[in-house]
Sequence to fold (597 residues):
Amino acid sequence: MVQRKTVGRVIFELINGLILIIIAASCLMPLLHVLFASFSDPRALARNEGVILWPLGEPTLKGYQLVFNNPNIITGYGNTIFYVVCSTLLGTLMCSIAGYILSRQGLMWKGVLMFFVTFTMMFNGGLVPYYMVVRNLGWIDKRIALIVPGCISVFNVIIMRTSFQSIPISLEESAKLDGAGHMTILFNIIIPLSKAVVAVIVLFIAVGSWNSWFNALIFIQTRKLYPLQLILREILVQNDTTKVMVTTNEFSNMDLYKPLVQYCTTIVATAPILCIYPFVQKYFVTGVMIGSLKG
Amino acid sequence: MTWKAIRRDFRMNWQIYLLALPIIAYFITFSYIPMLGVVMAFQRFNPKLGYFRSPWIGLDNFKDFFGSYYFWRLIRNTFLISFYNLIFAFPTPIIFALLLNEVKNRYFKRTIQTISYLPHFISMVVICGIIRIFTDNDGLITMLVVALGGKQRNLLTDPKLFRPIYVASDIWQGIGFNSIIYLAALSSVDQELYEAAIIDGAGRWKQTWHITLPGIAPTIIIMLILRMGSLFSVGFEKIILLYNSMTYETADVISSFTYRKGLLDFNYGYSTAVGLFNSVINFGMLMIANFLSRKYSETSLF
Fold:
């Protein structure tokens, strides 16, 4: 496509580029501010009124020292890793099975099953009946309450189903002739052929589970079982650093260190996401694309 | 469907049904039993007595709710937050996608995309924490407001500012990620149409107006209909992380009220009634949306 560049076009492209840079900058700026604030000198931080794009004063790791000396954050981190690993394994397994079943052709009850699964997206009993189910199972204040409830997302099932449907049926038919059952077909043929989509689901579930906090808020009471996000909520949202800061002589001035601790915890809790983000971002895009196609 | 056919199907597919068991058990436990659990809405529910022995009180919970001062406040807040969101946060990803589409340099485009998706992956707790820090007495945004002639205060304690803060941060969280679907639609617009338009002497604006926009219109319409279907569902996560008793007047929505009444005040029956009311409205809106979608765009959601 050859088109002569007019003066108007050049001006448009410049302005367009500028607008896009501003949008991208405003997406990034709050995070950079938090990042550099977390290395700043707390006194300089208290005086500061603008955007921080470089550590203020002498760069310091004092905030991180406070954060990592804090037993709550360490146990929270451990708990979160445990919850993420378990719910990702369970969720991926359950979603693959559900996606496999719903992608079978000529299965007698398929229509019924499909309705059974998708109807849960349209109507729900609400928060209190859901809470009561978990309570009646005796799972309140148990780790399992953060792993099993919510492990199947219908959206993920649909993504799996759409992708499994695109696998040529001849492959499994020849496996069937060799005497393979459905389990063999699913685990030895379908899943290995759908590595990219399984990766998408794994990432969806893992990031969702890393970021989730509400189930823990309503189901968990013991602080020892809190995931990181709930500790974060205390520090950032309820603005309460007293429970999580170990007061020592060096850090006796709590008010001074409070903002620093808030910035550092934010970074500590977000760092894993930020580190994997550039590499996995394209998988998420793939997931959205498959999810948006009607199955 | 005869008994014989069922038996044959079962003999052939028993492994599938075995695999289906945990899935079925999951949905029954966590989706369908809660649906039956809505009987609580008609009871003065006491967890010690359970669903069967708690006293039945008919529609009293609903009457309480519809007659209360909260009813219209919750409807208004839920609708307004959702509506402002529709007006401001729905078009921004479309505009963003259109602007990106004009960029010819691939690396520039990809960098902008990657950066703009980032906020979507940050946890709600962290986002709300950052919003709180920025709108605090001496926060960045507060300082900006002061520079523009506003009064210095904690912005999140001002009921008038809750909705703008909520919607603005929603735009920030979604502008990049929600544009993915439009970018996909844009890339599938037939390139030959542009070439034909150029031969006909159409300029860039005309191309955008007559080719690009009609090309992505079906996607926009579907997304819009989907959005309409959830006009009365505003999630509680962000609300309960941002609101406080000073801003309930404008910030409290049906879902956050359900949470507070049910799980903080232990008013189980009443909260279930409010939740059921909301679920029924959402279901109705979704049905209307689906009907409209089927009628006008030849694609239905289900």
